[in-house]
Design goal:
Length: 513
């Protein structure tokens, strides 16, 4: 019996290590496959200017509009480029994509640790990691989205350390909490929610553990040191903290982006998008069973908080925290009229809380002593494995375009109703086709959106000699990712990229007759 228990314990210790190692290996094998997204060159330029400011070279950093948009992470993001003296586009963006995936992976580590802390169950914590990894859009964003993925990971780290700090106040947890929460503020001003979430958790956790309230001096220390940590880790605040905080809040609550986005068949400006924009996007872009589990978990969590408080006495503060973390940011967006666009990526950071609610629900349901428990567990595992397999096959089949994932709720004619490759990463493969495979020695070509230009960074000057960029009226070939035009009248196609039958990139031959 002791040997069996030991073997089970060893398996539980080994399982998360193997799972995380496999994901890391997959990332190392795939980070070179993704193109350059719409935002990356602008974000890189900001990081370079922030580096020049911090190193005392120039103050040009303060003249750019997006200086409040993730400058802390972008400063770190350019360090490999600076320290390794990377000069060509290929090596620069490889380094960025690798670093971005690493911070995604670190987020997975903390997701496991948070799940283990919450449920006390390694199996359930690993289940949470699987749900996260098998969310195709977020997995793909993990390579090139240097805004939303680092914010997600650092927010998750901050919340983990906030909970640990409440449970055991002291310097060992105070230091990483200050570093993580200070840095996350520099990535997006929504990071200011960390102290609020920590105090919320501390209050309700203290109701079942009165010793917490006796440690109020530690909480006061954090609140006093938090502004200092933010100031140190957010260079944009250094010249005038009060002024730049007000400017950052104003810009981030109503970011000056006015291009229309395709939503339910209509092009709508971000300021005019309906309140249900985010719920719809979550509902159609996350695997269907994960959506069902989250909605069920939200309902079960409300039920437990209202009617079964004594049963979950030790976990009450967790359930409350994860419910607030899951739903409050979206409600704030709606109430403040903040600009959200290009799916729900701005709120990716709530996804770990959604997963925690799922794990909490499963822990509760699995603990019930009911006659049908065996049937419930068996049914759950069958559906979970089916959804995991279907999702994994999609991700493998459409690598590296997992970010164009839709579940069955999206319906038919998806390309006419929702954004497809709005990032424009598929331009990389289009250029590779024209340069390396298309038989003509010279190509007169034009492209639709800026990522067409950005993805030229993958090629050498000699390779680019084959492409001659002319205006649309003179071009022989037109390359499009359908960003603002879901349908084109050109009929002859020499190259297409499809994601499960939906075209996201096409090279047309153009007739000017």
């Amino acid at each position: 019996m002791q040997l069996k228990i030991l073997e089970n314990a060893n398996i539980q210790r080994l399982m998360p290590l193997v799972l995380l190692a496999v994901v890391l290996l997959l990332g190392l094998m795939n980070f070179k496959k993704y193109g350059i997204s719409w935002d990356e060159p602008m974000q890189r330029d900001m990081g370079l200017l922030c580096y020049d400011y911090v190193s005392g070279v120039s103050n040009e950093f303060f003249s750019i509009q997006n200086k409040y948009h993730n400058s802390t992470w972008e400063l770190f993001n350019v360090l490999p480029e600076k320290w390794l003296n990377l000069t060509d586009g290929r090596s620069i963006y490889y380094s960025r994509h690798l670093l971005n995936f690493i911070i995604y992976w670190v987020g997975l580590v903390f997701l496991y640790r948070l799940g283990r802390l919450f449920t006390g169950d390694s199996w359930l914590a690993c289940l949470g990691v699987l749900i996260f990894v098998l969310t195709p859009r977020i997995f793909a964003h993990g390579f090139y989205n240097s805004k939303d993925i680092p914010f997600l990971s650092f927010f998750l780290m901050s919340m983990y350390y906030a909970i640990r700090f409440v449970q055991k106040p002291g310097f060992p947890m105070l230091t990483p909490l200050l570093l993580a929460s200070g840095a996350v503020f520099g990535m997006r001003i929504l990071g200011i929610m960390i102290p609020f979430f920590m105090l919320l958790f501390a209050f309700f956790y203290g109701l079942s553990n009165r010793k917490v309230f006796a440690q109020w001096r530690w909480f006061l220390a954090y609140l006093l040191l938090y502004p200092l940590a933010v100031f140190i880790l957010v260079p944009v605040l250094w010249p005038d903290p009060v002024f730049h905080f007000r400017e950052a809040f104003s810009m981030m609550s109503h970011f000056p982006y006015d291009d229309p986005v395709l939503f339910q068949g209509e092009y709508i400006k971000p300021a005019d998008l309906p309140w249900y924009y985010v719920p719809v996007w979550v509902g159609i872009s996350v695997p269907l069973f994960w959506v069902f589990l989250f909605l069920s978990a939200s309902i079960v969590s409300f039920y437990l908080l209202l009617f079964r408080r004594t049963r979950i006495k030790q976990l009450y503060s967790y359930f409350l925290l994860f419910l607030v973390w899951s739903w409050l940011p979206w409600l704030m967006v709606v109430l403040m009229g903040s600009h959200i666009y290009d799916e729900w990526r701005h709120l990716f950071f709530v996804y770990p809380a959604m997963i925690m609610l799922i794990l909490g629900m499963l822990k509760f349901l699995f603990s019930l002593k009911l006659k049908w428990q065996i049937f419930f567990r068996t049914g759950f595992y069958i559906i979970f494995l089916w959804q995991s397999l279907v999702t994994l096959l999609f991700m493998v089949r459409n690598n590296p375009y997992q970010y164009v994932y839709f579940n069955p709720l999206a319906g038919k004619n998806i390309h006419l109703r929702y954004e497809m490759d709005y990032w424009g990463l598929s331009y990389r493969q289009a250029w590779e086709y024209l340069i390396y495979q298309y038989p003509e020695s010279s190509v007169d070509v034009q492209f639709e959106t800026p990522p067409g230009e950005y993805n030229l960074a993958w090629f050498t000057a000699s390779e680019l000699k084959k492409l001659h960029f002319v205006d649309y009226l003179s071009c022989r070939y037109f390359v499009t990712n359908y960003r603002f035009h879901p349908v084109y009248s050109h009929t002859e196609k020499i190259f297409t990229i499809k994601v499960d039958g939906l075209e996201i990139m096409t090279i047309f031959t153009v007739s000017h007759e």
